[in-house]
Amino acid sequence: MDYIFLQPILALSIQTWTYIMVGATFSLYIGIAVWSRASSTSDFYVAGKGVHPLANGLATAADWMSAASFISMAGLISFMGYDGAVYLMGWTGGYVLLALLLAPYLRKYGKFTVPDFIGERYYSQTARLVAVICAIFVSFTYVAGQMRGVGVVFSRFLETSVEMGVIIGMAIVFFYAVVGGMKGITYTQVAQYCVLIFAFLVPAIFISIQMTGNPIPQLGFGGTVSDGTYLLDKLDGLNQALGFSAYTEGSKSTIDVFCITAALMVGTAGLPHVIIRFFTVPKVSDARLSAGYALLFIAILYTTAPAVAAFARTNMIETVSNKPYSEVPSWVSNWEKTGLIVFEDKNGDGIINYVADKEKNELKVDRDIMVLANPEIANLPAWVIALVAAGGLAAALSTAAGLLLVISSSISHDLLKQSFKPDLTEKQELLAARSAAGLAVVIAGYFGINPPDFVAAVVAFAFGLAASSFFPAIILGIFDKRMNMQGAVSGMVVGLLFTTAYIIYFKFISPASNVPANWFLGISPEGIGFVGMLVNAAISLVVSRMTDAPPQEVQEMVENIRVPRGAGTAHAH
Amino acid sequence: MAQTKMQEYWSKNIRYLTILLSIWFIVSYGMGIFFVDALNNIQLGGFKLGFWMAQQGSIYVFVALIFVYVAWMNKLDKEYDVDE
Questions:
Q1: What ipTM was assigned to the predicted interfaces of this complex?
Q2: CA quadruple A236, A238, A243, A247: dihedral positive or negative?
Q3: How far does Cα A38 stand from its chain's mean position?
Q4: Which of A222, A285, A564 is the closest to B47 by Cβ?
Q5: Of A225, A250, A412, A470, which has the highest C-beta tally within 10 A?
Q6: Which residues does chain A have within 8 Å of residue B58's beta carbon, measured at their own beta carbons?
Q7: pLDDT per residue as tens digits for the range A224-244
């Protein structure tokens, strides 16, 4: 009986379902923003330092997992096979560094921003300015990509233009970031985590059952397919038959895999929008614990993604490879319309020849569509496909909001209040923070609609810069009491110049020479941030030992942040 | 807190960090990257061990490491009376 009533609902189109899901989640985000708006600068910058560690863990996970993690990563891995591990390990291992080396001490330090810490620890406005510029640059690089992700989801699922999608996304983020500040962002991110993880897991579980009979994707990944062979063995065979390298073996050199993984780990730990989340909890022990929760929640997606990658690749090869073009399923033509799948019948036989050899290959599949197209490839119901759209939007919006907050606090707090206009009242600073957030949304939206060609190339930049500038300066600031302004500033400047020069040379000046034979020690521009970090640390250590020790009060501050209990009481015992 | 006790607390903290970060290094860079080919000769169900460490195992260990660190530090903070 019930089924008859349900049938009209189940028969709704993908587009209707998408409107329902996106509408419902967007109203939820706006509702939360209204409920949790910020009333002081402390609320706006760090949510009044009153966030429960579990909530902070959820928010950090959503903050961290961007459109790239949700939409692109599994697709990237499915084309890279083993080499995709650089992202999996790189974007999770950094949390161990954060939890053990940064979060507890920065929370004890107790101010609002990363440039705050650098400026005070190295008693220098120059150091603060270098940090502010890096923070703004890294955040803008990142946020443009998020807005683009919003636009892509809107254009495919709601058949609006990319521009319209970006504008709607901007309006939503503008509303809750500007009104709610960190407080609004935090609780919206908690909701966004729930949406995005549900949206990622549901299709993964469906497909895992379909292909391997195991409902847990992480286990189905190592399970057997219908013909009784192990999924990964079969995939190795499929890949090799088409001329690709075996799925479970990579094609990158060991040193490059090492350096890229290390640069991503260290870069993750140095990204200001991630670090800033640990300022929002009440205690040092909460900062440690919430880093643990954050990684746990991130790991749920990050251990599912490689399984999705393997399922999607197997499915895709089996569905389209060597099949007549006239008989392919409808998802192929749906995505052909967006230009993200291109079929060119080079030998005119009407058969799709998908092979490694670029001369003979007839099918181009954009890696970004693997997650979005996956439910369609697997023939899942319309509501699952709509759910994936809502999840992709949640991932993009949550990260965008976190980044916008860093940009706005860098401008209103670090530049205005701390550098140029120290007499700003709390009210004026709050207004400046809101205006800066608003302006940042508009600029980010502009880049989302008119993405500069270099967006993809500058992602390596974001991590490289964070790795070669912030990470050593913060770590040495905590663990090396003797580190001084001269050491830290010269280290940051040389580390930055080295990394920037290397990336600019291979990505912009001479892209043609961007091949392993020309790389320094075989390290690609994506991995050079790790070398930049080592250069930074070495220079900082040498220079600091040749110059004067930092002032007494700075050394006391370092002692103070090493102990969890508040400064006053710690000395009383 | 007295200077010597503070130093003791700090050196214990450093010892914990060294242990945990060594494991962090071994499971990711060691097992997942440098020795991946050797470990791939060992089969773990449908996985080659090296590949599994790189795409699954190391991540599980990372999560465990942070929670161990949290437990150890909470205990240490109490022992040295610096907890909040």
A1: 0.96
A2: negative
A3: 25
A4: A222
A5: A470
A6: 88-89, 92-93
A7: 888 889 999 999 999 998 888
